[in-house]
Design a protein that fits this description.
- By secondary structure, the protein is mainly alpha-helical.
- The chain contains seven helices and two strands.
- A two-stranded parallel sheet has the order 1-2.
- β1, α3 and β2 (73-76) form a beta-alpha-beta unit.
Length: 145
C-alpha cells in the first residue's frame, strides 16, 4: 500500500468500515516507521459539529492504532500548537505554513495539512526538549491539571 493510498483512507473514516481501514493503514505506517511516541491535535468544535464528529472518528481510529502498539500519545490544542510555532494562539493557516517552512528549512510553500501535522510534531518536540531541560515529566509539562 502506497503512502498516498494510506492517507486517503482518512476521508473514509465516517463509517465503521472506513474507521477500520484508517486504523489498519496507520498501523502499517507505525510498523514501517517505528515511532517511539505520537502527538495528535485535539478536536476543536468550531462552526461545524458535523466536521468535528468526522474528525473525532478519524482521531479515534488513529489513537486506537497507536494505543494498540503501546505507544504514548500526547494531545495538543490548536491554540497551543499555534502559540508554540508562530508565537500567537490566533495564528492563521498561512502563518503556520510559513513558520513550519522556516523552522524546518523547507523551500516553497508547505501544503496546509502537512504544515498542520509538522506543527504538531514541532510543538511536541519543543515540549519534550523543554521538559527534559527542566527535569520534569513531559506529560506534566503541558498538563492543564
Amino acid at each position: 500500500m502506497s503512502t498516498t493510498s494510506r492517507w486517503c483512507c482518512w476521508a473514509k473514516a465516517t463509517s465503521p468500515r472506513g474507521s477500520s481501514a484508517c486504523c489498519t493503514a496507520l498501523a502499517a505506517l507505525i510498523d514501517e516507521y517505528r515511532p517511539q511516541e505520537v502527538a495528535i491535535e485535539q478536536v476543536f468544535v468550531g462552526r461545524s459539529a458535523d466536521s468535528a464528529l468526522k474528525l473525532g472518528k478519524a482521531r479515534g481510529a488513529a489513537i486506537s492504532a497507536v494505543v494498540l502498539r503501546d505507544l504514548p500519545v500526547s494531545e495538543y490544542a490548536a491554540r497551543e500548537v499555534k502559540l508554540a510555532v508562530v508565537g500567537t494562539g490566533g495564528a492563521d493557516k498561512a502563518q503556520i505554513q510559513h513558520m513550519v517552512a522556516v523552522m524546518l528549512g523547507l523551500s516553497g510553500k508547505v501544503q496546509a495539512d502537512a504544515a498542520d501535522a509538522l506543527a504538531i510534531a514541532l510543538t511536541h518536540a519543543h515540549v519534550r526538549a523543554t521538559a527534559r531541560r527542566l527535569g520534569v515529566d513531559a506529560r506534566l509539562a503541558w498538563s492543564r491539571k
